[in-house]
Each structure stands twice: as structure tokens, then as C-alpha cells.
Amino acid sequence: xxxxxxxxxxxxxxxxxxxTSLHALAQSADGTPANPDSKQTTTVVVTGxxxxxxxxxxxxxxxVTVIDKDAIERSxxxxxxxxxxxxxxxxxFAGNQTNAYWAENGYGTTQVNLRGLGANRTLVLINGRRVVxxxxxxxxxxxxxxxxxxxxxxxxxxxDGASAIYGADAVAGVVNLITRKxxxxxxxxxxxxxxxxxxxxxxxxxxxxxISGERGxxxxxLDYSQSGTVNMASRAPxxxxxxxxxxxCVGSSSTIGGRAVLADGTRVNFNQTPGGNGNFYERYNGxxxxxxxxxxxxxxxxxxRISFSTFGNLAINDELRLFTEVLYTNRQSEQLATPGAxxxxxxxxxxxxxxxxxxxxxxxxxxxxxxxxxxxxxxxEVNTARLVLGMEGRLxxxxxxxxxxxxxxxxxxGATSNVANLDRVDQTLNTAVCSKAAGAAIPCGDYLGYGDxxxxxxxxxxxPIRDHGGNEQKSASANLHGKLxxxxxxxxxxxTGVEIRKDKGWLDPDQLxxxxxxxxxxxxxxAGEYDAKEVFAEAGIPLLANHWLxxxxxxxxxxxxxxxxxxxxxxxxxxxxxxxxxxxxxxxTNYSTAFRIPNIPELYGGNAExxxxxxxxxxxxxxxxxxxxLSQNCRAAGVPAGYTQLGNTILTTTGGNSRLQPxxxxxxxxxxxxxxxxxxxxxxxxxxxxxxxxxxxSTVDGSTKLRACYESVGLSHPFCSSAHQTRNRLTGEVxxxxxxxxxxxxxxMSGIDLGALYTMRVGSTRVTFNGEATYLRNFDVTxxxxxxxxxxxxxxxxxxxxxxxxxxxxxxxxxxxxxxGSYSLQYTGKARDINASPGDIGDHAPAVTYHNxxxxxxxxxxxxxxxxxxxxxxxxxxxxxxxxxxNTDTMTYDLLGRRWYAKLxxxx
Length: 908
Prior knowledge:
Largest sheet: 22 strands, antiparallel, barrel
Oligomer: single chain
């Protein structure tokens, strides 16, 4: 229990007790940076295997992208996701500051999504060990905000399925963050940056101290970073939509005066002029009355992080070492949100004789934006702690072992300001209980017309809500790796290990939210946990060596047996061949299986409702030919002629599904590595990849469900059933739409990764080119057995992110003495909006290339300064029909525009 309550105190005490002996050891290093890895042989354990190898990561068994410390420093990045989301192998959706409103893992969180197969299918490790999920409660993936960039030595990204090696979460690949170990002395870093429009000001500072010697190392650091705000209206003054062949501001149909339907079916809107006639109303006109949300949203939301970390390793003797990892991060983030609108979560019916109703008819107040109360603010404060304690050592000459316990816990509070209490709204409309008298306990409210709500009414109905939650992970592992025996072609390598893990997540929404009283998405509490017990074995067997057409041929295999508390057992395996045909040419291939159980939010997530960007295909159906399937279906569904979707969002039900079952996956990679003899410093790689996921746990977005339904003959598609969507009989609007996860889907993806690394010297100047590109051949999702295949390759999906066929990231680096610099190109290929009709404005996005430049100068041996510009040519994001925010896909394109930063590093 003490470990659970006081992990930080225990770890810090252990580290401090070792400091004296480590300090004495470090004196022998003569004040120069010592590298403990330099004592090792050329064989090391790299990401993708537990067996020691002397292969480089780029030319090894599986393709690995490495982002080293120099690249991290040159980038000027203050967050891990900035670097990872630039990779060509990243796709689809992953949270960052410019799409915080759409973060499935919780507001303010950031993730990496390899291949676009989902952040929950990408395993994130620190020094080869798991990390607790992050967010404000019951989350499904690691929040990269918790990891300070300054402590990272390199990032290793395995772009291959690795469940047999690391566990069931590594379906799409593995991101392994390796922390610094080779540091002596004190290091200070400070950074400042902003956009060319003088907003989004970023500040960061870091202080690190380390000592190292033959018997170990100790490094501790304190990291601080804070990012600024960019209002969305400064990048996109209003939301755009196509009308009469041109783009116009469309806005939200949740108006500030109030939009209502009268008893005779007439749709009206009430006064929107400040100080105007409170009883005025007129026919609703979207172009005139709709609300422009963009000034009340942010394109970039502020976030502040403070992190403390300590990493240490101490040799007790020649055969035994102790190690520890301590990490604590406090994150404070917030997102600006539009003023809340009534009528979304509870109908407001006002009788014809109500004193506030000037129409003479009973009415349904469909939407009333509470602009008088001001915007809402979503805010989060999350505390994450991670502690690893372990031992490692040698058994004889050929075997190494390690054992560790890993404890991680994060707790968070998510708050929302200016939320209406719907029970109190009802009371202010009930003339039997409310009063217009000054100081009345329950004041009467007039919601028909902007400015008619008094401060007393607003004070009575508005207030904050707070949710509390967290995640916890406990694990213990033991591993052994070494050499079994000698064969004619070489030594057989072997590794084995066991891991016991318990994951837990919980989220306790505000009581008013649980009861459906708050004017927000109703939620139920989430609480769940599961246990996993796993054992694995891995072998590397040399088959041939020094033969014609086979300088070496190695067979690699791994198997993992997993037993889960809720779903029984499963066996995952991997087989691979590594064939060095000639010194300059290699072939490599891997085939693996995976087994992923539903995570806690997928299983236990409470049902919730929210307005999500959704395109209704029946909007404007009556203008289509009467013979078209879409026209016939919309008419058959009772959608009135002349119907036009109001705004671009639809109330959608989301949440968990307790009936989910595990999903299974198969992955195949095959590639070549060529090091031409005429250019020995050039390495070229080409790798084919294929992923097939059956019984897939996935969510089909609302736009796709509606289109699949209304484009099917005779409304025959299963998505037409009431379990998926229903319409209002009077207005034709979609009034229920489900986007809950299910096992019905299957997914198939294939493509090619290309890589190039070339280093040359021109006099005293070293020039390095490092490039990677990904071609996505196909990404097909079958939402249910026998269903129509949804092809995402080359498409922007409107809710799942972008899956362009081509992506690349290329960097040219030049180093000459005290000067160094780099120039990088991030390319995103053209893509078609999956929900737009051909010929529509914004039916596709053109190819976009972002240019980034960095320059570094060493003022002295201890001091260096850096200056960089991202999006050098101030490239604007393209308009697409299915935009998420700011008229574009915020998961793919840059909203900030040109921005610069300056950085100072001082070491002593």
C-alpha cells in the first residue's frame, strides 16, 4: 500500500541514497561526458527484438525509423507528438493542440497513430517498458504530454506488427522512447517561439543534471513548457459551405435569438438585435440567423506542462545492477468552446399562452444559444506518475537477465464552465414556481429573443461541472536473453520472459451530468479493470553463412502466450527471415499474428451524446433526379421536399459496448535493403506492409453510416435500422445516430515504405540526407460481414482523419564546425473528401508541402543557439467539405502558418 500511495517518495529516496557513490565514481570520468553504452560490445537489444544483435536499426530484421537527439534538438519541438506525427507512417487521427476538440482519448491529450490503424493499436514504451494510459479517466492510449522531450536520447519507431514480442497492443507498431544516459554536469535549455502573426507564443525551459561512471549513472531533470492560444477566427473567420456554386458563411443553426417550430409547422427565429424588440420574430433564415462559432473556438489551445524525471543505474558488483526510472508530469490544458445551446439534450415546449410567447401558438424551442452567459471553457488538470524499480545482471558469459516492477498512475479533473442546469431552466419557465420579483429564489426567464435573459436568471441556471477520473497500471516482468549454442552458420540467440499486468480505469462524471440535468453530453460512470498474464519466447537461428548468394541467412521466430481475465487465452506468433544476399543487398520478411482485447473505455465506456460533424446525404435531395436511388430513399424515409441540413453537426450517441469480443490481426512485411558499392554511405530501403484485422473493434462515423443507408437500394442496408439512426417525423432531421464500437468490421491495409540515408563529406562539411516516404495502396474497411467495402485510401474521412496515398518527410542536414543547419520537407499527397460529391467545392484537397528550416551555432564548447522556422512559406490549409474545424481537416493540415523559435543550450 505504501508503494501505491507514495511511489515518488520511495523512488527519490532510493536514488538519493545512491548519489554519493555515483558522484565518487563520476570523478574518474575527468569531467567528460561518459557513455555507459560504450562499455558494451557492438551487440545491443534494439526495438523489435529481445535478442542482442549487431545490426543497425535501419537495416535490421524490421524497418525502424530512428529520431535521434540531434534531430530532436534541431526541430525545436516541445512535445513528442510533433515529431512523431510528421513521420510518413503516421496517418489518420491522433490528438494534438490543433484538434483538441476531437481527441478521442480526452481533451488535451496527444497520441501517435501508426498507419492510421488507431492510437490504441500503437504501443508506446519508455526504455522498452509499458506506460500507463493518460487523460482525465478511463483512457485507451498513452498521453505523450507526460514525456519531457529534453530527456529523450532517441525515438525508435518499429513500423511492423510486434504483438508476439511486446504484447497484444502492438498491432500497428511500437514507439520506444529511449532516455538519456550519457550526460555529465549541468545543462540548461530555454526556448521561445511564436507565429508570424504574433500569436501561439510558446515558452519552454529545462534544467538537467547528470553524473556517470564505470559503475553507473544518474540523471535528473525539471522540465517546463507552455504554449499560447490562437483563436480560430484569426485563421478561419467563419465556417464555410457551398451555396449556389460558391462558398458562403454557414454558421450554426443554434441561434442566439432562438429557433423554434410553431404548431402549424412554421420555423421561426426570435430577435437577435441587442436591445431590440424582445417580442420580434420572423421566419427562420439560416443565412441571416445562423451563429458564427469560430470566434468562440480556438485553432490552437493552450497547454502547460511541468515534469520531473530521474533515471539511474548502479552496479552493485560485476554481475548485478540496480536501475530505476521516475517520472512525474502535471498537465494543465484548456479549450475555448461556444456558448451552450438549449434544446439539444431536452425539448423545450412553450405553450401558446405563456407570458414570454409572442406568437400565439404553442412552439418547440429547437435551439437557443446562451450567448448572454458567454463562452464555455473546458479545462483539465492531469497528474501522471510512473515508477520503475529493477535489477539486471549476467549469468555466465553468454546470458543477460533483468527483472522489474512498473507502476503508473494518473488522475485528472476535467471541468466545464458556463453549463446550464436543465432542471433550473424548466423552473424558470414554470410560472407556477418562478417569480419576476426582485431577489426571487427562482426568477422567471424569457428565452425567446437575445438579451431577454436577465443576470439573475443566468446566475440561477448557469454553473460549472467537474469530472474526476484516472488510469492505473501495475506490472512485473522478468526477461532472459543470450546464446544457446553454436551452429555452423553462427550462434543461436534466444530470449524468454514473463509479464503480469493489471490495468484499471475509471471516470466519475459530475452528478448533474450523470442524471442528465446538465446541458451537456449525458454520461454514466466508467469503472473497469482487467488482468493479463503473458509468457514469450524468441529465437534467432542462423541457417547459412558465407555461402554464394547467402552471406548470411537467419530465421527469427517468436511466440507469446497470453491469458486474460475476461477472454481466456490466446497464442500469438511471429516468423521472419533475414537474408544478406551480398554485402550490399539484403532481403527481409516477417509474418505475425496479434490478439487485442477490448480496452477499458471500449468495454465500459458509458453512453454519451455529442454534436459531431456529420453530413446528411438527404440535404437537398428534392433537387436530384426523381429516378436516383438517393432521391427515392429520402422520400421514402419521410424527409420533406426542400429539406436542407441545418449546420454541419448531428447529435450522435457514443460510448462503450460491453458485448465486445477480442479482435485478431495478421501482418506481413517484406523488404529489401540496398547499400550500393559505388556509394557505401548510401542506404536505400523498400518495405511492403500488409495488415488484416478481423472481428475489428471499430466505429463507423455518422456520415458514412447515413450515406451507406441512403445509397442502398430500397433502404436495405443494415445501417438503415433504428438501432443506427432515426429521423424526426415532422422536420426530417436526424434525431438519433449511433457511433458506438462493435466487432462487426474487418480492416485490410497495404502499402510500401521507402527510405534513404546518405552521408557525404565536402571538405570539412558533412552533409546528410534522410528521407522516408509511404505509399498507401489500400485501406479497406468492411463495416459488417457482407457489407459494402469502404475504401479510405486516398480519402479524407471527416472524422477518422486523412489517408492520402503518398506521405513523405525528408531532411537535409549540413554540419561544418560550429555551424549546422537542416532543411526539411513534409509532404502530404492529394486526397478526395469521402463525403463530398464530385464537382463540389472542396471535394478534394491538393497535395501540400510544408518547408521547415533550422540553423544552429555553437558559441563555445558549452553554449549553442538555434533558430528555426516551420511552415516557411506560410502554407494555408485547403478547404474540404467534411471539415472538422476551421474549414479543413485539423488532423492533417497546419492551422498555425509560419512560425519561428529560438533556443539556447548551456552545458557546464
